[in-house]
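Researcher: Here's a chain I'd like modeled. Treat it as a single chain, no partners, no ligands.
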Amino acid sequence: MSRASFTTNSSSSESSSEPDAEVYAEQTRRTVLLGALVTTACLGCSAHAGANEDPPGADERPQKGDVLVFSEGDKEGKPITAADLPAGGPPVHAWPKDPNTSVVRSGSRLNEILIIRLDPAELDEKTRARAVDGILAYSAICSHAGCPVTAWVKSDVGDKEVFKCMCHNSEFDPRAGAQVVFGPAPRRLAALPLVLADGSLSVAGNFTGKVGGAQPG
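Model: Modeled as a single isolated chain. Structure tokens:
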């Protein structure tokens, strides 16, 4: 009786262990498959991230000989010519571009430039000496907190239009070397020397002055 009972229990145990083994095998297969899928996905992410990385030189400051290209709008990436600059403003936003590698130096926001064409008679002596046919280039980054300088508006303290940072209302007069005329900015915008050849603009040297906002502490 007990033997029959034991035999019955033994058969039941064997029959129940078979599904367990199948379940375990199925779980193992799923684990391996899931691992393969995750690995493939990670590799795909890595390749995508690598493809989106800035090319060498994209974050370097403007170099002598770099051409200036539009940083926004319908002409983004195209060279800026004197004809693209309306007399008296507003300014055009630009990036420097390496003419040898075609790398646009947009990897750092500190490289964005404001280019404006003004009446040479309105410029002070030092600014006029640096201008090319009244064309001037300045950093587009405010010297106060590093915000972008985006506005060309009538000054709060005069009747002329000026560059304005809308973050804290600092104003800069491009006719006088982009000196501060209003607001908390501690210093003028850095200027960028230019050269004009065959109507196109290119960089003639390094920024004159520090680029970007004041450092804390």
